[in-house]
């Protein structure tokens, strides 16, 4: 609350100040605007596709593939202290799977096997895998 004392505006106990402090000195500042990206990606695959095409200046509500892999690597350190994984491939986008495998390799993660989610013997293969951690690509 603002109080007036002897013709002067003073702040109260909450810390409000003279109203002139809130006035703009430069009226032209109101006419300037910043450019905001007009392109938004709502899924990791959309964001990754834009990034792969060299598109810059867009907003993503989902993590990029590299963020996903980096998080997975940190999780591997915490839960398994292992760098060997089996990958279950969803067979939807081979370019994303290839990129995923490339990033995993760059982060020193080894792949025991890559198996299709539709493989008829998937359970047996994963049970006999050297890897104790199974990663399924959901992107």
Kindly give the count of domains. Answer: 2
Give the termini separation: 53 Å
How would a textbook summarize the main sheet? Answer: 3 strands, parallel
Q: Helices and strands: which structural class?
A: alpha/beta
Strand order of the largest sheet: 6-5-7
Name the poorly predicted regions. none
Order of helices and strands: EEEHEHEHEHE
Provide a descriptive summary of the structure in words.
By secondary structure, this protein is an alpha/beta fold. 31% of the residues lie in helices and 21% in strands. It folds into 2 domains: 2-31, no CATH class; 63-136. It contains 4 helices and 7 strands; from the N terminus they run βββαβαβαβαβ. The strands form 3 sheets. Strands 6-5-7 form a 3-stranded parallel beta sheet. α2 (65-79) packs across α3 (94-106). The mean pLDDT is 78.
Output the keywords.
two-stranded antiparallel ribbon; 21% strand; alpha/beta; 2 domains; 4 helices; 3-stranded parallel beta sheet; 7 strands
Could you give a quick summary of the protein structure above?
This protein is an alpha/beta fold and about 140 residues long.
Ordered list of secondary-structure elements with their pairings:
Layout: E1 2-5, E2 8-11, E3 40-41, H1 44-52, E4 59-60, H2 65-79, E5 84-89, H3 94-106, E6 110-116, H4 122-127, E7 133-136
């Amino acid at each position: 609350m603002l109080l007036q004392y002897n013709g002067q505006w003073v702040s109260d106990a909450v810390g409000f100040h003279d109203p002139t402090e809130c006035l703009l000195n430069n009226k032209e500042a109101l006419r300037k605007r910043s450019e905001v990206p007009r392109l938004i990606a709502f899924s990791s695959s959309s964001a990754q596709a834009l990034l792969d095409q060299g598109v810059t200046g867009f907003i993503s509500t989902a993590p990029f593939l590299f963020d996903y892999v980096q998080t997975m690597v940190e999780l591997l350190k915490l839960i398994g202290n292992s760098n060997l994984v089996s990958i279950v491939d969803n067979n939807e986008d081979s370019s994303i799977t290839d990129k995923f495998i490339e990033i995993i390799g760059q982060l020193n993660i080894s792949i025991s096997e890559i198996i299709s989610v539709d493989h008829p013997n998937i359970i047996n293969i994963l049970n006999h895998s050297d890897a104790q951690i199974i990663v399924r690509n959901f992107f």
